[in-house]
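During the reporting period the student researcher (J.K.) took over the structure-prediction task from the postdoctoral fellow and processed the backlog of single-chain submissions. One of the processed entries is reproduced below for the supervisory committee.
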Amino acid sequence: MPLKSTGFLLLLFGCLRAAIMEEVHGMVGGNVDLSCISPERKHFDLNKTLVYWQTKNNVLLNSYIPGEDTSKYIHLKYQNRTSLTLEKMEKGDFSLHLSNITIEDELEFACIVVNKSNTEFFFTSIVNLRVAANYSVPIVDDKTNNTEVIFTCTSHNGFPKPKVYWVNKTDNSLLNQSLQNDTFTTNEKGLFSVSSVLKITWTPNISIECCIENVNLQQNLTVQSSGNFIRQTITTPPNQLKPPEKTTNTVFFTIFGILLVILLIVGIGSRKLCKKKHRYGDYTGPQGNRQMAETTEYI
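J.K. obtained the following structure tokens:
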């Protein structure tokens, strides 16, 4: 049976509606096993078994034909990246090992196991591969002018394209996305970087959180007001970023505060002197101490 027979391959895919469906996740640059395990039979005679791993566009990842070297049929982008294990196949496990995952591998793959004698299906399986790459920890910078605060949140080298949210931590409300402007770029590997700019009116005690969501990993990376997970809040109005100059009232209250501290020191000293003269004056006996204990509140 010619491996590249288009009619045969199309016939196979036309019968995949009843195939076993599974979804797996893989990381860019990592490895993954695409599962294809017989639901019933536990032993296969590999001399009478054909195995095909391919995409719906008939791109061949790997195959097994008894007595034939099928590596020449494997598509160029999957050369030296896939492998089948004979020992496992004899026991009904036709899973494909895929290495060095790229974002182009996010596809549906079909595993087709056929009886060589009569070309009937033993079973089929479809694996949906979801590819992901971790985004860097977001970094948030802020700039303030007379009336508004501009926050910029950046994160790099992730996949798939992220979703960006801004949260007002004062009441944990999600800010309207019309307030933000998101810019996405990709590198030579197809990984995304994002820069999100949020402009809001300045208010006291601003506390903002940037959230980068990776849908495939079901992961949220959040940072509040600045990078490195350091919490920052802006409490000084824009027109008072520098400390105001001291006025006459400021000097008066400073002098008053110094005098108050001196009076407190004198008072504490007098109290200690009195305690030395009347060391046992506060003792009321066991009964008094018991009542004190009973009326003391412990938190």
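The committee noted the following: The chain is about 20% helix and 35% strand.
J.K. will present the remaining backlog at the next meeting.
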